[in-house]
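# nightly structure sweep
# worker-07 picked up a monomer target from the shared queue
# config: single-sequence mode, recycle default, output format = structure tokens
# input follows
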Amino acid sequence: MLAERRHQLILRALRSGGPAAVTDLSEQLGVSPATIRRDLLKLEEDGLLTRVHGGAVAEEGDQPFAEVAEVRVAEKDAIAARAAAMVADGQSVLLDIGTTAYRLARQLHGRRLTVITSNLVVYEELADDEGIELVLLGGMVRREYRSLVGFLTEDNLRQLHADWLFLGTSGVRPGGQVMDTTVVEVPVKRAMIEAADKVVLLADSAKFPGTGMAKVCGPEDLDVVVTDTPVDPATRSSFEEAGVEVVVAGKVRA
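# output follows
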């Protein structure tokens, strides 16, 4: 069995059944305890679980939108306000899924902009604002996460261009890699990156390192990171080497 498949099965077992012992996981997957221990170490490094004596417990996974929307609202609003200030009237903006993009949408009322999104909550927020030309991407609906995904979404994005992309994330690794917990969202995020002139990552302090087993992009694909707290030295160094500007709650850091 491939390591990636084992990792998926381990996380599924932990999220459905709670903490599990190494011996139990070994029996379930038909591999040695030593292999399970190596898998748990790798998954802990990726922020997906916490090892405990004799086993592991899963970290919080991809939560429904309504739950995440109530967390760190003040921090997200600070990030959103700074991000909105980057955009000039008349420009086109791509808004990713997620709650920080939604908080950014709230900052765009009254502006003369084109907003393109796969985020259903962003669409609902801006639908009655007549100053905004609103483009909703097609695709399969992920109801709990209020987003559209799939090949239709990706095809739509290949026909479009935006001045700005404001990208969300589940986690940012010390090497500057942008991660996501949900594999099905990754192709859409990559298509958004290809469709935009400037890519801005919106990431509050909980996203360093955050979670995520699927890589969206590297630091070389970003232009700006907007966050609410100084970035740790290792990650900041990775951004600096890639020429990424880091903006911290109104303060600019190279």
